[in-house]
Amino acid sequence: MRLRNHGVTEKTGRHIGVLALLFAAAFFTWTTSAMAEIVFLAGPNGTMRSVDTNNPGSHAVSKAPPDDTTASKAAGVAFNIYYDDVDQNTDIGFDDVSFGTQRRACVVETLTYISQILGRYPDGRTCDVRFDRSVTDGTGSFYEGGAYFSGVSGFVNGFAFEHIQTGIDPSSQLSDMFITMDFGWLWYSDTGTPPAGQLDLRSALLQVLTQGLGMITLAYPDGSSKLPPAKAFSVWDSLLETGAGTRLWTGNPPEFQGTALNLTGNADGVFFLGAKAFEFNEDKPAVYTPSTFDANKSLGFWKQPSDIVGKLIVMKSPPLAPREIVREYSILDQAALYDIGYTNIVMQLAFAEVPRGGWFNVGTRLEMSVRVVGAVAPVSYQWQKNGNNYPGKASSTLVIESLALGNTGNYTCVVTDATGIYDSPAAPVTVFAVGQLPAMGIVGLCLVVAACVLAGALIILRRE
Fold first, then answer.
1. Do 267 and 188 meet the contact criterion of CB atoms below 8 Å apart?
2. According to the model, what pLDDT value does residue 310 have?
3. Is 35:29 a contact under the CB 8 Å cutoff?
4. Can you give the pLDDT at residue 434?
């Protein structure tokens, strides 16, 4: 069953329509005993169209070599990329004479980054991504995309996940992901900052491809599955609970344990229970649940989180805005991917608390600390001053009981765990004699005096 979520239809340029094409396959046996797939494509107003994968027509996977590929199999996940625009010589979208090459480079760059994040698969894994013929009207969704889901009861991640994690292609007739772009909108495909009113193509691709990896809900507003008659929900759905502690879907086949009100923020909201996400966020991260259920956004995005390492969140709500750049996963995004099953991701520790320096009088007691999350034992600490180890300072807290002038410098804490070595941000410490203003203090005083003189002159001028 391929379910289409329709996105924003107003051409405001204020928000990107966050869309997901959800696909599922229903299996049955032909008289020849060969297994065939019927894919149901949701049309407007709840209508359904079926696609026979033995005769898929425009939905058929290309038999030709891919138009692009991201990496050798030995390096991790190799994404095979197909463009209907290029194959059909449309002269639009990814085949546009002026921008097509640059746009395809954005796709390769984004999927190469995703491959690096997903980790190494020494025996080689692949995933097939197809970009349907682009549209250029600029009046509908900014983009649409997603993965196929098998129409069997249980918690599933979709064809992309199955192909990557098992190495077995779930369907020889269909790609693992489908994406359609509307290039009637203003897209920016260069490497800098988008001009006013333009949407960053790399950021949008990262978001929609992440949905195709399985970070998506398969729930309707009443808690039922989008893949009837099977009771199928995403693994992401299996990790959602209300603020009151009620797991929303449990069992096999999954049964909805809440009410429709729970999916619109009642019972103190909805939260993601993934262990890695909890560890790195140091709490259960909140999931987006507007008071009116939004078929395109509810339950599938974070609720405006503030990531611990300061990066913007890829799967956030509200979605991407013009000029906004989110070309890398935050720690929270990576943790959620790990929690839904991409366990080859190497989760590197993050600094939840960093050292803070400042100006200090001689004789002052200095105490600085770091706090890390996601560390893999064994964990060790070593403080450094100006890049050199500080003798005897090998814990998460640095204490100097009485500062001397010689303690001036830049301090960092080097944390080592089983995954690597990590440096905290530097904390500059300036020590000065009692009664002596530091250099910046003198500059600041001069600025204050100058401001006062200028203010006085203005008053005199006004009086004259």
1. no
2. 64
3. yes
4. 85
